[in-house]
Amino acid sequence: NYYQLIWSNVPFFTVPLARAHGKSFAHRSELRQAKRIVVKLGSAVVTRGDECGLALGFSHKYNVVAVLQNQGREMMIVTSGAVAFGKQRLRHEILLSQSVRQALHSGQNQLKDMSLPVLEARACAAAGQSGLMALYEAMFTQYSTCTAQILVTNLDFHDDQKRRNLNSTLHELLRMNIVPIINTNDAVVPPPEPNSNLQGVNVISIKDNDSLAARLAVEMRADLLIALSDVEGLYDSPPGSDDAKLLDTFYPGDQHSITYGTKSRVGIGGMEAKVKAALWALQGGTSVVIANGTHPKVTGHVITDIVEGKKVGTFFSEVKPAGPTVEQQTEMARSAGRTLASLEPEQRSDIICTLADLLTERKDEILSANKKDMEHAVSTGRLSPAMLKRLSLSSSKLNSLSIGLRQISVSSQDSVGRVLRRTRVANKLELEQITVPIGVLLVIFESRPDCLPQVSALAIASGNALLLKGGKEAANTNRILHELAQEALSIHGVKDAIQLVSTREEVEDLCHLEKMIDLIIPRGSSQLVRDIQRAAKSIPVLGHSEGICHVYVDHEASVDKAIKIIRDSKCDYPAACNAMETLLVHRDLLRTPLFDQIIDMLRTEHVKIHAGPKFASYLTFSPSEVKSLRTEYGDLECCIEVVDSMLEAVDHIHKYGSSHTDVIVTENEDTAEQFLQQLDSACVFWNASSRFADGYRFGLGAEVGISTARIHARGPVGLEGLLTTKWVLRGEGHTAADFSEQGSMTYLHENLPVAQVLPERRTTS
Amino acid sequence: NYYQLIWSNVPFFTVPLARAHGKSFAHRSELRQAKRIVVKLGSAVVTRGDECGLALGFSHKYNVVAVLQNQGREMMIVTSGAVAFGKQRLRHEILLSQSVRQALHSGQNQLKDMSLPVLEARACAAAGQSGLMALYEAMFTQYSTCTAQILVTNLDFHDDQKRRNLNSTLHELLRMNIVPIINTNDAVVPPPEPNSNLQGVNVISIKDNDSLAARLAVEMRADLLIALSDVEGLYDSPPGSDDAKLLDTFYPGDQHSITYGTKSRVGIGGMEAKVKAALWALQGGTSVVIANGTHPKVTGHVITDIVEGKKVGTFFSEVKPAGPTVEQQTEMARSAGRTLASLEPEQRSDIICTLADLLTERKDEILSANKKDMEHAVSTGRLSPAMLKRLSLSSSKLNSLSIGLRQISVSSQDSVGRVLRRTRVANKLELEQITVPIGVLLVIFESRPDCLPQVSALAIASGNALLLKGGKEAANTNRILHELAQEALSIHGVKDAIQLVSTREEVEDLCHLEKMIDLIIPRGSSQLVRDIQRAAKSIPVLGHSEGICHVYVDHEASVDKAIKIIRDSKCDYPAACNAMETLLVHRDLLRTPLFDQIIDMLRTEHVKIHAGPKFASYLTFSPSEVKSLRTEYGDLECCIEVVDSMLEAVDHIHKYGSSHTDVIVTENEDTAEQFLQQLDSACVFWNASSRFADGYRFGLGAEVGISTARIHARGPVGLEGLLTTKWVLRGEGHTAADFSEQGSMTYLHENLPVAQVLPERRTTS
What we know:
The structure is a homodimer of 765-residue chains. By secondary structure, chain A is of the alpha/beta class. Helices cover 39% and strands 18% of the residues of chain A. In chain A, β17 (608-611), α25 (613-618) and β18 form a beta-alpha-beta unit. Chain A is globular. Chains A, B: In the C-terminal section; belongs to the gamma-glutamyl phosphate reductase family.
């Protein structure tokens, strides 16, 4: 479906695998094509990390290496961890060979406390190798995948004959669909330098396997080398310092911009050595990602994430892209946004009017870009007719867009910096609460390109910086519309306040920029909203994922109004979130002409009826009974249920509704007012169609969405939902101590008048 | 530290392990004491689940069974999964024995496609047993823990001699600190009924291992049986139906309240059999928890969670507690809260005044309860002097609390139902936006019991239902204060709107009640706030985790004001979140008397000074250089940094601040206004101490906290932050279609006057 399209721009499985043949990939999104992949698992990953269990785990879900292999890729593993494995094994053997009887007789705890001799790393490696291999084999056997063990030393790469032998063996294994598991033959290398990183055991420096993996990747002309250890990736300065930033992508030319720390968890120079190995592989034509393999993750897996092109760890790329990264775009937007917020209201209004003008003046450019997108969409056949309609722009659409923008420009005049409250806290100490922009907004929208100028105008009016992430299928239209928005912004020098994010960026990655983005507004299917709510754990999301709206017809309802409202609520636009899904009918109406008229009308309109359990029990024959009273049909279908009273209707809605919009139809004002008071939904209507729950119909101008959240904005959200407040206090050297018992001042807390401004004035065209 | 105390009321490691000896535990929190534990791993857990890798995982972090064993518990595992294991093994063998050459020559994909004979379950079990055991052994060897294999049949329990043999063998193993791994000896049992649950292989019904585990647990007098499969636990009606609720605790007497489904993933009656086995074990004196072992989890582990008393799966208990569960409390609170919201404002105000009266009238009761808590705290010596001070109440504290409550009662008059906006949408179609309560609040507070009446009053004033979770050390004081709050609420029949959650409940469990709680407000240390923000993924949290406040002294500052404000901001109460942490000084001030006076004052006040990098570069000698410019000292310490201009100060604060409260000291009004405008913090002050950032000082009455979030409430939050809005539309049968091109109506969107009410009027005492 379409959602899949924007989420991961091209579905994973449709990407053809491709051998890079000595040319590394330019962008993370291309990593999906990688056919031959070397995965290097550091000692920390194999012995300590959770990713070990997950990376190599024998469960069906998580042996991702086997899964990738079964996708037709050629996977190779370079493993560490034999030393740690062997250590445990030897320790166990030593314990057993000491007098077990003695240990058993003197109590169970002694086993743990017995002192152990210091174990030699090479012996440990030898002892651990077999256990490690057995484990790998068990894990791959689950997938009917064979593994093969290869032990190498660095010398094997220097001797040409040995190198050729190794090469042809590995190629033969790959050809036979066998996963080679490669490790250094530690038992036959010279004794290592003492190094007590790993729990008191002398280990062979971790550096060895990094360079081994790099050499192997280049030798085998692998497309991708994934090097997992317990570091996140490459930072621009020593991790932990105030300014240290994890580099998403590293270009060989940028090496001077890196400051390596003098200390790190992997020892002096550990990261430098990793980078050296990575650059070496990159030069040899293999793309490299360095990432942390020891983080527990609920969904997915670091290796899968990397191969799916997600922003995990540091990606090494030879090709520096022309444009800024999304992080740079966010920084630019925030900075320009601050200037935008400090402009005069007239200037912001000015920008919006300019954009409105541009939409009509540059109509031809826009429509020709839109035509390209339409043609492409038609030729690929990926979009449904409804979606094609949403994608298409027309001269008249642009005109009404332009008119809408002018309305927003009017209401922008008194939005930012409005004084909401003034208090004289004490003599010469005055407090103001004023409206300010929220900061940086991320708006994710599906194929509708007209969303772009609307949302841009709302962001400009409210002084917010804006990141726009549109669907790939509207790429051309979005590009020109964004250019026009920037053109309008430039008249007051704030061009960068609105940024269009590249279609290559993953929505999920954007949802993780919690230090940079203040509010996410998804505009699209409820599936999109739900997925983004899930992905954006630390950033608030404004929107609604469900619209289960009810119309309750009271026994004192007017026949005409009931019929009119039910028809409009269900049939005006059944796919809308504010369409009726459940019709609640007062029991007394059941055997009345009104009820028959309702049913007749629904039949005439081809609405499929489902019966709620109570309704079904009233009928001798009945329509299909509902599976759940919480269904959002989004189509010409609805559920009918019977209630005994208005209060039962309220209870029903509280229990099964989504607090979006609910309607009562009655002529009894008391009943209506009770319903309106008691019902806890964002919109509660009396004798009006649920379809009025809409920012434009409410008179808010364009809306950024409808919120079913209970804090901040609720219901249709216009300009005001994009504002927050700040407190400004002006004094003359006042201190809290002045107000203490010994102090000379007392609090007045006198409310001062605030110039009353009606919120979001609007005139309709 | 204290936080640890409230978080998991009694630290895990201090609980002595205890044999229950035939008496099951009454409450989940007692499961921590369980010494002898049987863990039953269903086939789904062993073969499919992630928990398998985690449950048995060979990483140090996650072989939780071994970890529990090493804590001194006696762990036993009842395992399934041999069939699935054997299936894969046999499949592999069959493949290899078919012409491998042929497969290799005809391409790699054929291996996967080759058809396989149907495998017999018992043969699979026999073939899989050895592999499964090898895996368990490898996993436990990592922890230097021995395992032993026991194969049993149901008959072994019926024959007395066999049962005694089994019993003594198991006891001997436990005595030797060895973990027995028990499985049914499937190879020697009668052929199973066909059942194609498990990927086309005939399996032995999963029921067997449930009853085996129960029998074994009772036979061995285990304290706890943890039965993990792929079902969440016991539901009160078939899972998936509208009303199905997972039971947190199940009492044998409640069995009639359960409706078993006719179908479930584990086959007809699967759950019933599980429950039967569980009840059998419970009757035998073993506590039981049924839970899902196949969910991936980032932190912790289902087994650990269960043993820590967290709400995972269904806990079987013989003792039904007297009070309601926390879920029932939430339901009661929400329902009574709705009534509270529909009361007249005067009635809510009335309740608050009554509570204010009760605080003074029943002073003696309160103080004597508080005395008990104080004595207990002193005797255990767990609280620091500062915390003891916060815990203690006095007659005068109660008086001022009572005065504060009367102020809240005044402001409560115009809070709920206030009309914020009125619009004539069209002829006879009128829209109102009115304030309504948020819903159910959860307030978590540390030792300060005076928080309870304050927060209660704010909740009553705003018509919200309230769950209170206080610290254990204030249990007696909180109980009496809560009783008084309920007494006050009863005068208008809404007693249940405020609920005190038992100290036994885990904060983390409460954070997961996302369908029941609308807003969480933690009141306590920033560590508490951070932990709750992490735990409460789907519920918004109102609060701030950091307060890095700055005072910027401009080169045009007044000497007196600067000294006064810096002293007050840093020294008035250094531990407060609104205390100054970084002093920014204009460069031109460096060699002036003002600067010397500042330094002298800080020295006199014993403030330890850290130098920012730029400041340090100006000095020949320098105080210790800061590690990070983002430090919250919370003590008589601060950082001093030099900036070249007001704008650089703004940049510094944007970069290193926490957007809490920042101050400029200057006599230049233009500079000040620019600073106030440009700086993006919740509170920005000119010539006033940062300590004014406080709800009471702002004139908001009591505050529920200070928010550094950017949406909803920002800065000090009073009554208004506990309100949201709803939209009320009143029509006469209006439909959206009336306004279409063919329709007869047009939008007016005329703003109607709203009676202006000043927000939160307050008079000071």
